Amino acid sequence: MTIRHFLKLADFSADELNHMLDRALWIKSQQKAGTPYEPFRGKVLAMIFEKASTRTRVSFEAGFYQLGGNVIHLTSQGSQLGRSESIEDTARVISRMVDLVMIRTFGQDRIEAFSRYSKVPVINGLTDEYHPVQIMTDIMTFMEHRGSIKGKRVAWVGDANNMSYSWLEAAKILGFHLSLAIPEGYELDTSLIPEGTDYYTVTRDPIEACKDADLVTTDVWTSMGFEEENAKRMADFADYQVNARVMAAAKPDALFMHCLPAHRGEEVTAEVIDGPQSVVWDEAENRLHAQKGIMEFCLLGKV
Length: 303
Ligand code: CP
Ligand code: NVA
Prior knowledge:
The chain is globular and about 50 Å long. The chain folds into two domains: about 10-130 and about 285-300, Rossmann fold; about 135-285, 3-Layer(aba) Sandwich (Rossmann fold). The chain has helices spanning about 15-35, 55-65, 85-95, 110-115, 130-145, 160-175, 205-210, 230-235, 245, 270-275, 280-300; strands at about 45-50, 70-75, 100-105, 120-125, 155, 175-180, 200-205, 215-220, 255-260. The chain has eleven helices and nine strands. By secondary structure, the protein is of the alpha/beta class. Helix 5 crosses helix 6. A five-stranded parallel sheet has the order 7-6-5-8-9. The chain has a four-stranded parallel sheet with strand order 2-1-3-4, sandwiched between helices. The structure holds phosphoric acid mono(formamide)ester and norvaline. Norvaline (NVA) binds near residues 126 and 219. Phosphoric acid mono(formamide)ester binds near residues 134 and 259.
């Protein structure tokens, strides 16, 4: 059987992504009903973190335990990766011992190198280029609140980062429109944009991007790995804040999402993130559930 890694959304069809989302909703309903679902009994997940995490760490670990399995947590500093053992050798060794691997790292090339040498499926828990498990979570959260995302308008306010590229891939595959407001100097890398021009628009103006949006979303001004640019980014992103004025451009019932961690007063105001349109806590919880649908697909296929 060919291994299906979950490295980026573009590797999957709409049918497959929708299947994972439907399974995530079903597995969540089982948990809420108190019905145990433990298909991962006897299985082991290894998680490798080369960047910090709260949600990804807890949701993958708790989720895998809840599905009956066991988890090993590694960091680059606490393993031989921090002493320059190659990613390829690390993959060869770890994948002989466990059933599934989740990696959070820097370049996408690093997780791709790992997956080429891995005997077991590898899941992307965030790279510099993509954050696919978060976007699956955000779409699941949208579905719970508003139904299918197909044909809807999603607005992105912020730089061209891992979240924005995964949003672009999702828009293309699942058939919704993505409108991005991106500051000058932080533009999209065209090599990472899926083919076609009909599913997204780019502007400099957050209000224009949010016009008639069903969902408004943003992210920290400084992503992990870009900390040395922080002072410059604070100035360059000053006009890229999701506040009440920007939210007012969206549909009256538009949702607000943020992958978190958030910096109130920077990319979003407290009135928005703590306001009635915000679903960020449902979104954060859904990391637990959405990833169960993804892990089930990687380990057991289309159940
Ligand atoms: N949203 C997200 O991935 O959060 P963590 O960095 O806390 O894992
Ligand atoms: N774009 C952010 C997401 C954090 C979950 C980062 O890469 O730091």
